[in-house]
Amino acid sequence: MDLKQLEYFVAIADAGSISEAARRLHLSQPPLSYQMKQLEAELGCPLFLRGHHEIELTAAGKLLYERATHILSYADSTKREVAETGKRRVLRIGVTSSTSAIVLLLVHAFSLAHPDVRYEITDATSFQMLDLLEERVLDAGIVRTPAKLTGLETIRISSDSMIAVDQWSADEDPLTLKELSERQLVLYRRYESFILDAFAGDHAEPDILVLTDDARDCLSWVRGGTGTAIVPSSMKSSCTDLRVHPINDSRLSTEILLAARKDEYPSPLLSQFCSFVRQHRAD
Description:
28% of the residues are buried. This protein has helices spanning 3-15, 18-25, 29-43, 59-84, 100-113, 126-134, 177-180, 192-201, 215-223, 268-280, and strands spanning 48-49, 56-57, 89-95, 117-123, 140-144, 152-166, 184-188, 207-212, 228-232, 243-246, 253-261. The longest helix is centred in the first third of the chain and has 26 residues, at 59-84. It is built from ten helices and eleven strands. Residues 1-58 form the HTH lysR-type domain.
């Protein structure tokens, strides 16, 4: 039994059939079937229940699948750590348009303690980031609630309230949802439901003029003279040429989280970064 056989076995179990696994692995089906017969012969027991449209695992197959995924994960992390020995380490972090400033602060502080690390930063939506984490394109991501984070380890970094931003106000006084309902609004699409729920709870109906797919675009619309944007307060540093208003409603607050896979054998670098975030998060 070798790692390649375990990789093929896990691929077949995940795909549900040998033909689909062969397609995903870019192999022909006969060699894959042969490897599984060899594996079953070596172990002395069947691993699959055949004769169905989709292959099912036997009790022995389920046990091997659980062990094989751990073995492959450990082998992958070992290979990565050995390859990184004596080299500059790389940390791959995903950011959203509204969390890039937070990542900048974290990376700057972490790099002072770990000058041997370089960083690959990927811009993505929170939903794209979850896929990139699962596909191991990213080591960690800075995400903002609301988001579906099932199966991920998360570390709270801070809370972030929403602010209203316009170009024309004479002051920067706080605004209520009732006052905001009398303005034309520019919203980041991902926060639409979250913001609408807050307005509904206040028996107010917002006038949404523009929905965008990037929080930074909300500010561009405001700079162009269109409406009032509702964005996270962490974007305040990008609003120095605009009028910024606190919003008097505690429901309009989100959590900023560090998200990473729940690997049994995470890389030492990722473990160091997670520990650093826990120690330096805002409580």
